[in-house]
Amino acid sequence: MDLSTLPLDITEWLHPQAWLQLFGTFATIGVLAIIFAETGLLFGCILPGDSLLFTAGILTAVSTINGEEFQPLSLPWLLIGGPIAAIAGAQLGHFLGARYGRKLFDRPDSRIFKREWVEKAEYYFTRFGPAKAVVLARFIPIVRTFLNPLAGMLGMSTRRFFIWNCVGAVVWTDSLFLLGHFLGSEVPGVEHYILPGVAVILVLSVIPIIREVLKGRKADRGPDKNDPEESRPSLSGDSYR
């Protein structure tokens, strides 16, 4: 492959086609590597997530996107390897958070790190509780990167994290792979609708989160809303066990 034809603008690398074009015949391995990095390494927050999985699913049914030829991908390998990569990456993130704690997060803003990303992940962790947060975070860009080490830092046990990590990993990766494959098989010219398709997926994924936020606000209006100790969930205690 001629590397001189690849896009040089960093914003273009947020598009999954650029990565799949770069990986070429090793596209399946490349997709799994990005899944691992996005869920396990802090710099992975800048990598494509939902759009990459959705596009990879489409490429199990078609080989051309917007006039460009791509290496066809294996759906069985993605369905098996995707959850494994997502589980392994998240477990690494949890381990790093438990091991190094605040050192991972107590840093100034930079081009690839923003304090607000950590605060957003912590908000979901406290609002929904560890179990729901680990699953729901899979569908929220950036949050799914930072919530895993945050869970380790805040004391969520490795065993409990692993259980919900597996649930979230399978639902997130395989649902997007299968959706892309189905649309690629059934809808002519679906490759032209990748970005709108990802937008729809994001909207659907935040519906449960909106419901939880509204439920939480109703609970905050209850008789104990002025008691910070009662209204704020324990991050590492037994109230979630």
From TrEMBL:
Domain VTT per the UniProt entry, residue ranges: 47-180
Keyword Disulfide bond appears in the UniProt entry: no
Q: Does the keyword Transcription regulation apply?
A: no
InterPro entries recorded for this chain? DedA-like, VTT_dom
Q: How does this chain sit within the bilayer?
A: Multi-pass membrane protein
Q: Which UniProt keywords apply?
A: Cell membrane, Membrane, Transmembrane, Transmembrane helix
Q: Where is this region: Disordered?
A: 218-241
Membrane spanning residue stretches: 18-36, 41-65, 77-97, 161-182, 194-214
Tell me the compartments it is located in. Answer: Cell membrane
Basic and acidic residues bias located where?
Answer: 218-232
Protein family: Belongs to the DedA family.
Task: Cite the PANTHER family for this sequence.
Answer: INNER MEMBRANE PROTEIN DEDA-RELATED, TRANSMEMBRANE PROTEIN
Name the record gives this protein: DedA family protein
